[in-house]
Amino acid sequence: MEKLQFHKIHLPPFAALLFLLRFLSVAYSLTDNINNFFINCGSATNANTDIRNFVGDLNSSDPISSSFSFTGHSSHVTNSNKSSGTSSTLYQTARIFRTNSSYEFDIPNNDIYFVRLHFSAFSTPTDLSAALFDVWTSGSSLLLNFTGKNSSNSPIIKEFFLPITPGKFNVYFLPRGSSFAFINAIEVFPANDSYIPDEANQISSAGSKNTYRGLRSWTLQTIYRINVGGPKITPENDTLWRNWDPDDGSYENSGSATSVSPTSYSSMPNYGGNVTESISASTAPTLVYQTAKVAKPMNTSGNFNLTWSFKVDKSVSHLVRVHFCDIISESANTLNFSLHIYNNFSMLINPYEYGYQLAVPFYIDFVVYSDDSGHLNIGIGHWADTILNSAFLNGLEIMKILGNSGITLSLQEHEKKNVFIIVGSILGGLGLICILVAVFFLVFRCRKPKSIETSDWSPLTGGGSSHSRMTEGTIPNMNLGLKIPFSEIQLATKNFDTKLRIGKGGFGIVYKGTLKNGTKIAVKRSDPGSGQGLPEFQTEIMVLSKIRHRHLVSLIGYCDERSEMILVYEFMANGTLRDHLYASDKPPLSWKQRLEICIGAARGLHYLHKGSAGGIIHRDVKPTNILLDKNNVAKVADFGLSKSGPLDDTHVSTTVKGTIGYLDPEYFKSQQLTEKSDVYSFGVVLLEVLCARPAIDSTLPREQANLAEWAMLCKNKGLLEDIIDPSLKDQIDPNSLRKFIETTEKCLQECGTDRPTMGDILWDLEYALQLQQTAMPREPHEDSTVGGSAALAMPNVWRFPSISMSIERDDMPAIMDDGSYTRGSEVFSQLKADGSR
After folding, report:
1. What digits encode the pLDDT tens for the residues 163-176?
2. pTM score > 0.90 for this model?
3. 539: left (phi over 0), alpha (psi -120 to 50) or beta
4. Which helix (H) or strand (E) holds 381?
5. Which of 195, 469, 552, 764 lies in disulfide reach of 743, CB 3.0 to 4.6 Å?
6. DSSP letters of 588-631?
7. In 3D, which of 169, 211, 162 has the Cα closest to residue 191?
8. Residues 258 and 171 in one domain
9. Catalytic entry in 620, 678, 764, 818
10. In this structure, how many other beta carbons lie within 10 angstroms of the beta carbon of residue 3?
11. Would you say 724 and 785 are in contact if contact means Cβ atoms under 8 Å apart?
12. Contact by Cβ (8 Å): 585, 429
């Protein structure tokens, strides 16, 4: 094999190389691609950085401006102190959001996209460092509780990789509490098709190895991008405008390491020499492959090791990419060394498996689950039973998989926490008298016996008596008859015995218990003194203490002693509807049972909507909030997000709350809540009942991940069998199926006025059950689903752009009154299954 010669470089360090890199960047130019957006936020003029042209979002004359727009309310601000912060024109303006708002982009092609967010918190005329907010996209949370503060005064750039489907793509800015959000610049452009693989080696902190699949469906965040052994590489010298930092300070055993750079060797990476995959300057800049850190034997024993340690979030999965290019050898086939992760996994690195020449770049991807140390360790060293050799590393990239971090998987609007403190001393003696009168009236009323099921109840707010209202931040005491002493709850749960623990969620731990009278109960206990979930705790008490219905879960009592927040419910022996549809070892429900459960849930929701002039909108209808007793009688649960009416033909203006996949599109866009919002969510539930799969399932191929989209696709192809639960084969009467699908279609109409009421739905479902029970007998060879294909004419269901992104089953966040997020599997009403609160 021909020996590759290396020569000393006599140019100033990196001068010729930087010129070449800039040329390559221009040649690669993506800036004219219609898929690319570079936005200078809050400015009427464009800003040119390197070769990118950031279009001012107030510059309506630029053609790019027609491809993006704003939603919500925002303002723009210009730095009035040019001497403060960075001098770049890109960071002299910003857009400020004081309510939930977004940038909306028209995405023409399906691809993996770079999304970069630029923040530079200048202080005049508005102190941007005081901002506190969240950032979401159409399907993923990107930043939570983010602030633009930066002690170095340099811009903060957050980079993400997202799979985006054609259509509208939104980047949402959601202020926390009474604060605001801001952004200086946004980049959205496609990565190379192969930049993010779909599969990678998966390494646990214990050292086990298998294959991780589905990477391209997750949202990834760049945490580290390291040019090992070399200088900082800035965006103008990278074809994809990435920053690469030097590895100073991140490696250990520095005495055994030497850095190799183009000042010593002049070889160019042999991109065409890689025989296993396509490698180019867009994989990593040339300078990354022309610099390295080398570990050499310290003594004749041949043992050597070099380790890099990076601070990462605990117990989170990361995509780790290690870059290699042999620029240190004088001949091929001389190097064998080890790559190790967490000191308990290692693999042999032989550069010549990837190419038969020197200086052939290659990289290896791993999905690594971080341990509890908060550090991720990556090293190179001596491989056992090999001759004395050197080891080298050229580059490192570490990306957090947001889908596994517990904060991602979906989009919903953010509920701002508005706490109004009422000072009694200001009200004076008159206010005190009114309060005492109200308390007296409540105590008197609570002594009246409560019927088990009645439609005679009062509205909670807006039209109800003053005693039915509760000031946020106080525990309601208008239902003293429902208060249970803490000591009695301790006795019922054997002092919260871990053996009686049946679930855990964001609110706290759920226990099974037995009262002294033998009543089986479910006890949800918040972490003592945490205050988490206070608005839901209050709302749940308010709603369930005022209503009784066979198809609504019963609140037995509550406890607010000793800074405790405890809710006590009737015990639902058969768990949630979701438990019986999928992801469970329970036997499948028959079609008749499913219809009866849907009818029961519809009765409960109809009672909420129409049981009084005030009415209640549930706002979080889904299978995990439909519970089943020992006889499979359905009961609607979780009223922590509920909103009272009056409903009529009017609407309640409110910030959006709910769960992704079930959220009413009209409510989402207008923030105007009506009872038809529950109808839309119930339509999704009906579809889940028919198909026995979740509304969003990212473990499936992308075209099947969204249930509504999948149903449309199957309908268009006439493949009804791909939609209906296989366990229902030969069970469903075609007429019953036709009526059920017709009802589902009506519920899922985009416009609320086109949807039926819950009373109409109840009638239709009862009719579908009657058709099923009176079905004509068929011959054994007849498929009960024949003739049903025409019935499955699903509507053009509105969806979030990129809804088929990384959202796993029921692990989608529900938005709470205090601005916090809780995963769907931890929602307030799951009294039995794991993941409950």
Report:
1. 888 888 889 998 98
2. no
3. alpha
4. strand 375-382
5. 764
6. PPPHHHHHHHHHHHHHHHHHHHHSSSS-EE-S--SGGGEEE-TT
7. 162
8. no
9. 620
10. 10
11. yes
12. no
